[in-house]
Design brief:
Strand order of the largest sheet: 9-8-7-10-11-12
Oligomer: single chain
Helix content: 40-55%
Shape: globular
């Protein structure tokens, strides 16, 4: 649980998995490996006697993770460790399973790994992890195919376990609360909504160009609200996003806590997910659960996860993106049908089911 409380997707994944494991498993003994400096972990409530928090000093993606963390694990004499990301210590001798959420770093290495040492370290860690793991968990069939193709793992070694969606996103929000939250984020018009990090694969510059076309050619008087931290390693993305003619109608919201996020999902006109690659696309499912019509990139993983509950566009064509958004906004019947299909689709994803299927993997004897 070292990534718990970080606000990142992996952090959310491990938090929800543990909470639901506590609901279903009274038999196995769990040690929750927590960052000793995490405020979130201090507040995290353990509700069963067979679960215990253990503070560790090694942060994720650090050198100590590959050295002193191994000693911390060995002292616990664990039968099995679940690493919630690819970064299992290369020299850890015990049995473990890992979750690989995506192989995006192979397609978009990113500036954090621009130095050869960091790039080689990432590749060494993920290659060693998938080969030595007793089982590899993928969060979608599309991600499984990429793991098999890119990392050369046997298909039978990879189990697909979908993520879940929290019920709070489907709970109705009052009009008063919606206006309160919109005012807090300086949203004054009907708006399109995006949630995610400001990195290359999220395709925000093209989304902003599509927004400009929507304003200029289709005369839509709307705003674009972008929730998520602006990544300082990618200043060119922020520059491109705000370079458009109608940049005054873009709202960069920064990190948005879950309670506000649930309100904004229900307040928006539509949710747009323009990613070039994804591992699962949980934010799209959250939007569907909230009753928000979703437009998404026509890529395998999003078509798999979002199903019939989304309109798909070419993510490399901002003209197509703008056209599809305009068609949705101009067709109340299409919008209503899309909302209904999206809500049905979102019901397939449940964190309890995620926990049940993960527990079966833990208990496999091979």
């Amino acid at each position: 649980m070292r990534m718990a409380g970080t606000g990142e997707g992996i952090g959310r994944y491990i938090e929800k998995l543990v909470v639901n494991l506590m609901d279903i498993d009274e038999t196995n003994q769990y040690f929750l490996l927590c960052d000793k400096n995490s405020e979130f972990v201090e507040k995290f409530e353990v509700t069963r006697r067979n679960f215990a928090k253990v503070s560790v000093s090694s942060r994720y993606y650090s050198w100590s993770e590959q050295t002193s963390f191994i000693a911390e694990l060995r002292r616990l004499k664990l039968d099995l460790v679940h690493f919630a990301s690819f970064n299992a210590p290369v020299l850890y001798p015990g049995k473990f399973v890992i979750t690989v959420h995506d192989v995006i770093h192979h397609q978009f290495p990113g500036k954090k790994k621009s130095r050869m040492f960091h790039r080689l370290a990432y590749r060494a860690a993920i290659w060693a992890s998938v080969r030595r793991a007793a089982k590899v968990i993928a969060v979608s069939e599309a991600t499984k195919r990429e793991i098999v193709k890119v990392l050369g793992v046997r298909a039978e070694k990879v189990a697909v376990v979908y993520e879940g969606v929290e019920k709070q996103f489907a709970e109705a929000v009052s009009a008063v609360k919606i206006e309160e939250v919109k005012n807090a984020y300086k949203i004054s018009k009907p708006f399109l909504f995006f949630v995610g990090v400001w990195r290359q694969y999220k395709n925000l510059p093209r989304l902003s160009l599509a927004f400009d076309i929507l304003k200029e050619d289709y005369h839509r008087d709307v705003q674009l609200a972008l929730a998520g931290k602006i990544d300082p390693f990618y200043p060119e993305i922020k520059q491109a996003v705000f370079k458009i003619k109608h940049a005054d109608d873009i709202r960069a919201l920064g990190f948005v806590p879950d309670l506000d996020l649930a309100v904004l999902y229900q307040a928006a006109q539509a949710f747009v997910l323009p990613s070039l690659v994804e591992g699962f696309g949980l934010i799209g499912v959250e939007a569907q659960a909230a009753g928000l019509p979703v437009l998404a990139s026509r890529i395998q993983v999003l078509e798999e996860i979002l199903g019939q509950g989304a309109i798909y566009f070419n993510p490399t064509d901002e003209q197509d993106m703008a056209k599809k958004i305009d068609e949705l906004l101009g067709d109340p019947g299409l919008l209503q049908n899309l909302v209904a299909e999206g809500q049905i689709n979102a019901q397939k994803y449940d964190w309890r089911k995620t926990a049940e299927e993960t527990l079966k993997i833990y208990e496999q004897k091979n």
